[in-house]
């Protein structure tokens, strides 16, 4: 099965009737129309389709959901680093009788302080729904089958009258 085999020829060929007669003295034999048949056994592809029932897969749906996370950040905070004296006088002129006072004033500086800030990010989250209905799916399949190729060709054969008379 599978290998190509040569066919048979259905041709009747007969040998010369006598060896004593020279080839150029022998009469011509009549030709008879006939058919030569060749047969080959081949593997041929055949497509078949199988029907299968399959449950539809679960479907995917998207919904919006908030995602909360902490994000590092810096805040600037005023911090007291000390006090300084401030002199104040009632008049700017020094010739007049003047009353001066001293008061203490705080000194502040802005300091960067690391903090964690809560951030909310809206993202689409996939959710799976239950499987759907059953459906029929056609699945193709390739099969190899043995087939016979027959070729018949017209031909001519030599007829021997002695063989026909027997």
Uncertain stretches of 5 or more adjacent residues: 1-21
Distance between the termini: 41 Å
Radius of gyration: 56 Å
Q: Fraction of residues in helices?
A: under 10%
Give a quick account of the main beta sheet: strands, pairing sense, barrel closure.
Answer: 2 strands, antiparallel
- Order of helical and strand elements: EEEEH
Spatial order of the strands forming the largest sheet: 1-4
User: Shape, please?
Assistant: rod-shaped
Content-based structural category:
mainly beta
Topology (SSEs and partners):
Blueprint: E1 31-55, E2 60-89, E3 100-128, E4 134-158, H1 161-165
Antiparallel strand pairs: 1-4, 2-3
Describe the structure.
- The protein has one helix at 161-165; strands at residues 31-55, 60-89, 100-128, 134-158.
- The protein has 166 residues and is mainly β.
- The strands form two sheets. It has a two-stranded antiparallel ribbon with strand order 1-4.
- The radius of gyration is 56 Å and the shape is rod-shaped.
- Mean pLDDT is 79; it is low at 1-21.
């Amino acid at each position: 099965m599978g290998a190509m085999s040569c066919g048979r020829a259905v041709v009747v060929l007969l040998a010369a009737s006598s060896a004593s007669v020279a080839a150029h003295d022998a009469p011509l034999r009549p030709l008879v129309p006939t058919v030569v048949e060749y047969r080959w056994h081949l593997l041929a592809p055949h497509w078949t389709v199988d029907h299968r029932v399959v449950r539809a897969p679960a479907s995917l749906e998207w919904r919006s959901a908030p995602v909360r996370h902490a994000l590092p950040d810096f805040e600037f905070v005023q911090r007291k680093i000390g006090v300084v004296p401030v002199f104040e006088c009632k008049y700017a002129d020094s010739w007049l009788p003047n009353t001066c006072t001293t008061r203490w004033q705080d000194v502040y500086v802005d300091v960067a302080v690391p903090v964690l800030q809560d951030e909310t990010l809206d993202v689409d989250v996939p959710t799976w729904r239950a499987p759907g209905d059953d459906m029929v799916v056609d699945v193709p399949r390739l099969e190899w089958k043995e087939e016979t190729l027959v070729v018949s060709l017209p031909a001519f054969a030599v007829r021997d009258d002695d063989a026909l008379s027997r």
